[in-house]
Design a protein that fits this description.
Blueprint: E1 2-8, H1 18-29, E2 33-39, H2 42-56, E3 60-64, H3 70-83, E4 88-91, H4 93-97, H5 101-104, E5 110-112, H6 117-128, E6 139-143, E7 146-149, H7 171-174, E8 183-184, E9 187-188, H8 199-205, E10 214-215, H9 218-231, E11 236-239, H10 248-261, E12 266-271, H11 278-287, E13 289-297, H12 301-307, H13 314-327, E14 330-337, H14 344-357, E15 361-366, H15 374-381, H16 406-422, H17 426-442, H18 445-460
Parallel strand pairs: 1-2, 1-3, 3-4, 4-5, 8-11, 11-12, 12-13, 13-14, 14-15
Antiparallel strand pairs: 5-6, 6-7, 9-10
Helix pairs in contact: 1-6, 9-10, 10-11, 14-16, 16-17
The chain binds cobalamin (B12) and iron/sulfur cluster (SF4).
């Protein structure tokens, strides 16, 4: 059967989506035809999407959505339903956290919860053979005025049984002939329970349904890299596993074999203080890893431990960064501002910690409470949520906290990198300032026009 997958990524491009890539691979392995429509701009592309549906004539549509994109996902489903009588299903992080959306949004025929490969294949098979699909595991459906809530099937025990994710459906791979930086993911799940992250909820819903943290074999990981390289040229890649260093035995085997096989390939990955030691770092470096990324999130230990449930100290962070640097690895820190309990002082502490560890790169995001997560619930119960989910992860807060104003949170997020870099890398700080000014101008059409005009005028002169 022909299946159309849709990836809304409005103001938030993600280049590829492993979940949809796996679903497409599984469908193709089972002789279905899958195509993808990537939606970056609703108004500009909605006509194109409707045209695509007419031309491709799918028997079913699957839309993936995270919480930020969900308002767009609903709009897309509504527009499809207005024009075609096709079954439309939504899956991804948001429907896993909040399957109840099926009750509110009538444009969805069903939602998929958790891992989608088997559930979606089963749906497609049943729809193709015109069978009743209302008992498919991992799905909630609307039937008449009722919601059918099916159970979750156990987690896929052996990830090696899955085909490699299908990159060929993404523009980034078929349009881009230049150098690419592909992303890979070799494991699923994380054993930690940080209150702001979705993992503890995914783990909870899958309680007693198999091992939550699973790895593909090292050989399968290396084979995927090899095959991807044969198809798409690259010499650097990113590993998106939540914590690449979690399973030391796996890591050391990967590093040893990778080094043997790919002498000219380099990469970056995520690690966690307390889940990486000196031996792990040395092996990462020897194998070709150039950059390690670490979530420190806040410089205040109380907030980190009590509010975020991240149990490592500032000293653990400082030690990991300094060891990594001695070994020759570049470092990257993830930071958040605007978490419940945040004050001017705690933001200052986060900046101070970054000034000590001096990362080569930083990400600073405004905290965003996801539905049903422990911290999301605290925000709802305390009446902190001013607005519901929006596409505003990086810069705008949707919270009204008693300890700090919205203006201060957003200003801190804007100025954070400049302030930190200024203490140890003036060039980077100035580049950051320039980037911000450019962004400010681009966001204002009149200023943008004037800037372009003057640039041209000065050049001619
Ligand atoms: C890799 C990754 C990325 C990659 C890849 C992008 C992507 N969207 O997958 C990159 C680095 C680009 C990225 C970016 C972002 N990410 Co991210 N990312 C992850 C991570 C670590 C792994 C996801 C993954 O690949 N898992 C493996 C695959 C196989 O699983 P999956 O994607 O969940 O898909 C399965 C099911 O969900 C389901 N499914 C998914 N889609 C569909 C669609 C249909 C039709 C069906 C039937 C089923 C289905 O079936 C799939 C196969 O089993 C997760 C954390 C996590 N543990 O899930 C966060 C996570 C998904 N990311 C998150 C966030 C917030 C972001 C950003 C907004 C961050 C930012 N600052 O910009 C951006 C958004 C970009 C975008 N437009 O999507 C959040 C989402 C929270 C939420 N409630 O929505 C997560 C859950 C992390 C967290 N904070 O808890 N991310
Ligand atoms: S360590 Fe990272 S991936 Fe794991 S629960 Fe915490 S934030 Fe989520």
């Amino acid at each position: 059967m022909r299946v159309l997958l849709i990836l809304p990524q409005i103001n938030s491009p993600c280049l590829w989506h492993p979940g949809l890539a796996y679903i497409s691979a599984v469908l193709k392995e089972n002789n279905h035809q899958a195509e993808l429509f990537e939606m970056d701009d609703y108004d500009r592309q909605i006509g194109g999407l409707l045209g695509k549906i007419k031309e491709f004539s799918p028997g079913i549509i699957g839309i993936s959505s995270n919480s930020h994109q969900f308002s767009h996902t609903k709009k897309i489903a509504q527009e499809i339903k207005k024009n075609y009588s096709l079954p439309v299903f939504a899956g991804g992080a948001h429907t896993t956290l909040r399957p109840e959306v099926i009750k509110e949004e009538k444009s969805f025929d069903g939602v998929i919860i958790g891992e989608g490969e088997r559930a979606f294949l089963s749906l497609v098979n049943k729809i193709e053979s015109k069978e009743d699909y209302s008992a498919v595991d991992n799905c909630w459906f609307r039937k008449g005025g009722q919601i059918i809530k099916n159970k979750l099937a156990p987690l896929i025990e052996d990830l090696n049984t899955l085909p490699f994710p299908d990159r060929s459906i993404f523009r980034y791979f078929y349009e881009n002939k230049e150098k690419r930086t592909p992303r890979f993911i070799f494991s699923r799940g994380c054993p930690f329970e940080c209150t702001y992250c979705c993992n503890h909820i995914f783990k909870k819903i899958y309680h007693n349904l198999g091992r939550y943290v699973r790895w593909r074999s090292v050989d399968s990981a290396l084979r995927e890299i090899e095959l991807t390289r044969e198809k798409y040229y690259f010499n650097y890649f990113k590993v998106d596993d939540d914590i690449f260093s979690l399973n030391k035995q796996w890591l050391l085997e990967f590093c040893g074999k990778f080094q043997e096989k790919f002498k000219d390939l380099t990469y970056e990955c995520n690690v966690r203080p307390g889940a990486i030691d000196e031996e792990g770092l040395v092996n990462l470096k020897k194998s070709g890893c150039r950059l390690i990324k670490i979530g420190i999130e806040t410089g205040n230990e109380d907030l980190r431990k009590k509010v975020l449930n991240r149990n490592f100290s500032n000293q653990d962070i400082i030690d990991t960064f300094s060891r990594a640097k001695k070994i020759g690895l570049k470092t990257f820190s993830f930071n958040m501002v605007g978490i419940p309990g945040e004050t001017r002082e705690t933001i200052r502490e986060t900046m101070e910690l970054n000034k000590i560890i001096k990362p080569a790169f930083m990400q600073v995001t405004v905290f965003y409470p996801y539905p049903n997560t422990a911290l999301g619930e605290i925000c709802s119960k305390n009446g902190y949520m001013e607005r519901d989910f929006e596409n505003s992860y990086m810069e705008k807060t949707i919270l009204k906290l008693p300890t700090i104003s919205k203006k201060e949170i957003e200003k801190a997020a804007r100025d954070f990198k400049f302030n930190v870099y200024w203490s140890y890398d003036k060039k980077k700080a100035l580049a950051e300032k320039k980037r911000r000014i450019k962004k400010f101008i681009i966001a204002r059409p009149l200023l943008h026009f004037l800037a372009k005009f003057f640039k041209k005028f000065i050049k001619i002169k």
